[in-house]
Amino acid sequence: MPAAKPKTKKDDWRITPEDFYEIKFASEPQISPGGSTIAYTQLEPDYENNSYKSAIWVVTTAGGEPQKFTSGEKRDHSPRWSPDGNKLAFVSNRTGKNQIYVIDSYGGEAWQLTRMPNGVSDPAWSPDGTKLVFISRTNDEERKLETERDRRPPERLDAEARKKLEEEHKKEEEEKADPRVITRIIYRAETRYRDDRNSHVYVVDLKEKKAKRLTSGERDYVAPVWEPSGQSILASVKRVGDPDNSTIVDVVRIPAKGGKLQLVVRTSGYEADAHPSPDGKWIAYMMTPEKRTSAQNSFLMVVSAKGGTPRNLTESLDRSVNSPAWSHDSRSIYCLCADQGDVSIRNITLSNGKIETIVSGRRSIQWLDVSNTSLLTYMLSAPDIPSDIFTARSDGSKEKRLTEVNKEFLSKKKLSKPEEMWYESFDGKKIQGWLFKPADFDSKKKYPLLLEIHGGPHVMWGLSERTMWHEWQTFAAAGYVVFASNPRGSDGYGYDFKDAIHLNWGEEDAQDILTGVDHVVQKGYIDAKKMVITGGSYGGFMTAWIIGHDQRFAAAFSQRGVYNLTSFYGCTDATRLIEWEFDSFPWDEPDLLWKHSPIAYVKNIKTPLLIKHGELDFRAPINTAEELYMALRKLGREVAFVRYPREGHELSRSGEPKHRVDRLNRMLDWFDSHIGRKPKKRKAV
């Protein structure tokens, strides 16, 4: 591969796969206590190292030029202001494992606070600003050694000594996993095999720099947060029992000095993301009921800090919400809500349960934070904004854009302006979709159509979908009309719509998608002989399903899909998905799962297919892709198989930069070569 980053022609206004190296991503906005400054993470691809680097940036809420606050040569992220606003803690891997660093708010050199052998996550300041709580993974042996380690300050090592220690640690881990002894149902997840460690809650004092563990046992604790008194910490943990056979998670109270844990509320559901009110009287948390369907909405709950019966604040909304954040006066709670392709900010008044839409529009909002003056800050994506930081007043007024992290890049490009469309499906149900046309679109011409299908299945796309921004713009710039929709089963349209594919994958949702294609073709500017199809995860499933039932597409590109539901069940880290979606186990209803498996219709697949998969994808393991490829080869069909080493299920969203660029180039070449275009034989660069 070349050493220099590829250059785009100065006069080329088109978005290309290689433009990915130029795109920056703003995220994780955190507003200072007084509301004057926002710290956020800015991530960008690191071409030379084929990875990513990120730094903490700051910008005043009054406006002005954002300033780079940390070096960002590695991965600095998770900024957290101290309660008095004088310090900023963040997490960085600059010395290897993720550790907590602290820097004064006026700048200077950051100093390392933790030296945990297995790294840290989820830092949160104590109310008095003298301590931080965090999560770190340990096993029994390591916890036994902690008592001795706690008696002395953390050892400071030079670079050579630290490297030697890390190499020894790595060697020990490799020896422990050879052979790998499996004792759990879910023994691998994401891209790694699970070890014998569990996530535990620790507290570190800024002066003593010593970490103290507050939890024990073989349970995983997540999302610790201090209660306003500073005497206790809230966290979420799975209920005692087989952790792989239950999704029931409880919110617990942990004494800050150590001691017996207290159950805050006991329900039959997944409880997480607990947030105490500023006045200490209430605890808000997210809850998803444990019912045999993965289409359940996530509800915002509130309970007295003293205990009692929880209240469901968003049951009447019939939408999933997330990211709760209290107003400074403890009278209401802000949250994010997915609704008909957009993500808005809602506010729920505690006294009467009134739900108001505060910030809305054609956008997707993430990472909501609220100051003690109730100034809101959030990351916003829109068709012309890959990601930037915004603020608004507590009532949603005076919205202000504080960053333009891609201003220079976008100034050279012409973007596709998406068009929303609603159409009637085969049974009259209204379906929402979007068209991304080339920026130089001419209605008198005929264009190839790219059908994009989302995963999940219970997720939602919209015209502002951040994770698809570059891909959709790339194909529109390459001369394709891109069509994406939210068929039944998607989030954002209510529980009944989301649950409509229960026991019925690939049937009515596929008809929703293909009916949408029919509506687009009827507009008159699509060449029906030059239509191609792609999708990832459930979208990969659906791509293979559709070409096994329909012959209208010139080529297909199936990504990280599931093609045999029976063998998928025995290999995935998401076994509950099959149990919930089909109300059974493979050995009880083998015919049902086979009926809804794309590979059952492999003899009908005539469309040229390229199968793409990550070799370390433990969500949708590669074995079903291998089965589909083998079957098509045996049948003599046109099929290709591209396997990406080191990659998991998230290749298209967070994979190695050169793999992400290569994926788009291969898609373009595969499709171009099957619609009569001369492929450019693009290479990964």
Describe the structure.
The protein has 685 residues and is α+β, with helices and mostly antiparallel strands. The protein has a domain at 410-674: Alpha/Beta hydrolase fold, catalytic domain (Rossmann fold, 3-Layer(aba) Sandwich), CATH 3.40.50.1820. The chain is built from 13 helices and 38 strands. The strands form nine sheets. It has an eight-stranded mixed sheet, sandwiched between helices. Strands 1-2-3-4 form a four-stranded antiparallel sheet, with no helix packed on it. The longest helix is centred in the first third of the chain and has 18 residues, at 159-176. The radius of gyration is 25 Å and the shape is globular. The mean pLDDT is 92.
Please count the beta strands (DSSP E, at least 2 residues each): 38
At the first level of CATH, the class of one domain is Alpha Beta
Average pLDDT taken over every residue: 92
The number of helical runs is 13
Level-2 CATH architecture of one domain: 3-Layer(aba) Sandwich
Largest sheet: 8 strands, mixed
Helix content: 10-25%
C-alpha end-to-end distance: 6 Å
Shape: globular
Strand content: 25-35%
Strand neighbour order, sheet with most strands: 31-32-34-33-35-36-37-38
